[in-house]
Amino acid sequence: LDAATTAFLREAKIRAVCLFRRNFGSEAEVALLTRELREVLGPRALIALDQEGGSVVRSTFLPQAPSAMALGAADDERLARDVGAGVARSLRSLGINWNFAPVLDVNNNPANPVIAERSFGETPNVVTRLAGAWMDGSLHEGVACCVKHFPGHGDTTIDSHVALPTVARSRAELDALELAPFHALRHAAPAMMTAHILYPTLDHEHPATLSRAIVGGILRDEWGYDGVVITDALMMKAISERYGY
């Protein structure tokens, strides 16, 4: 942890950070980094990363967990719970206590360039059962989860890292498919991550991340969700090229 970053974290009273692959060296180096971060951020610090399994992992030296799609093919809730618990134990050994996983997106569009193997299945029922079991395993081992990407990134043909996707479904269609896993697991999820996607029937102007109608109206007011809401990365082009970050 360099001096300039340490000074910034202290002056800004930062209490949570997200690590990316560029922050990862050896196992010993990562453990040292998280110890130094906790000294600066305080004992209640949140140190997070995306360690979903499959291709979306930040640490490559930890035991590699199967993708959500592989767990969906097995369709075994106990196995999904065990994998979630195993991922959590390995993260906790490094001093990491918040994982931006599991994915609740339904894999309902074969042309989707960014979800695919990250989804547990093609139906809300499969996604809810297996992601819920995975999250239960993680929480039991003391690592918080963050389900994503609310209100659903499955039916897109554009990656929000490079442009702004649109999902033009009716509210009834969204309730039956995209929204269903988020609604079902809302009381179990300590945090939800928003999607940089435009849902014209919910908000014709703002993507979900910036939408009072979606985050405030549906998630907070209608569903009564009182957990943490966190954005997907704001430097992704769906946001940064239109609004800045």
What are the SSEs and their pairings?
Elements: H1 3-11, E1 16-18, H2 27-41, E2 46-49, H3 68-74, H4 77-92, E3 98-99, H5 124-140, E4 144-145, E5 147-150, H6 171-176, H7 179-184, E6 191-194, H8 212-222, E7 228-230, H9 237-243
Parallel strand pairs: 1-2, 2-3, 3-4, 5-6, 6-7
Helix pairs in contact: 4-5
Helix content: 25-40%
Count of DSSP H/I helices:
9
**How many distinct beta strands?**
7
Determine Rg (CA atoms, Å).
Answer: 18 Å
User: What profile does the largest beta sheet have?
Assistant: 4 strands, parallel
Mean pLDDT: 95
Please summarize what this structure is:
With 245 residues, the protein is α/β, with parallel strands linked by helices. Helices cover 38% and strands 9% of the residues.
Describe the protein in words:
The protein has 9 helices and 7 strands, in the order αβαβααβαββααβαβα. With 245 residues, it is α/β, with parallel strands linked by helices. A 4-stranded parallel beta sheet has the order 1-2-3-4. Strands 5-6-7 form a 3-stranded parallel beta sheet, with no helix packed on it. The mean pLDDT is 95. Strand 3 (98-99), helix 5 (124-140) and strand 4 (144-145) form a beta-alpha-beta unit.
